[in-house]
């Protein structure tokens, strides 16, 4: 089976990162969490996108290079690989004003290696991952972004890695998982 895996929000707990580091950053502006179900820091803290950009300017490289993978992610991915599944890392990380495409690709490859994440193919996709998944014959996608979960689930099974911002993603072809061991269980449930 070909398994697609997102990075931010699936291999990492970006929700926790944004709440922890956002609380530190925004406190100097007397801004605190107003919406823990927000997807982006500006939604969580009720700030402007300009202030959100300042937050990412300060913490983006730290997050990309140093924020750890979720517990048991590498262990479960290795187990899936040992069971002869193909692992495709499909991420919407891309170059932008603060970082070039080449640099983000290099940092991402180094981070995957540092965290023991094995894979067959690393794909840098547009934000909308449906076409990427279909073109690469992905049979199941592990994703956290609500828009992607809903769109992907119209064509392939999606394991929704639970967070506050995607808690309402339910429906046909959507299987919510709460940990990497739960991801493994859901994959086995789908394909038994």
Protein described:
The model has no long low-confidence stretch (mean pLDDT 96). The protein has a 6-stranded parallel β-sheet, with helices on both faces. It is α/β, with parallel strands linked by helices. The chain has 2 domains: 2-12 and 69-190, 3-Layer(aba) Sandwich (Rossmann fold); 14-66, no CATH class. Helices cover 44% and strands 14% of the residues. The chain contains 8 helices and 6 strands. Strand 4 (140-143), helix 7 and strand 5 form a beta-alpha-beta unit. The chain has helices at 14-27, 41-45, 49-66, 73-82, 101-114, 130-135, 146-152, 180-190, and strands at 2-5, 86-91, 121-124, 140-143, 158-161, 174-177. The radius of gyration is 16 Å and the shape is globular. The longest helix has 18 residues, at 49-66.
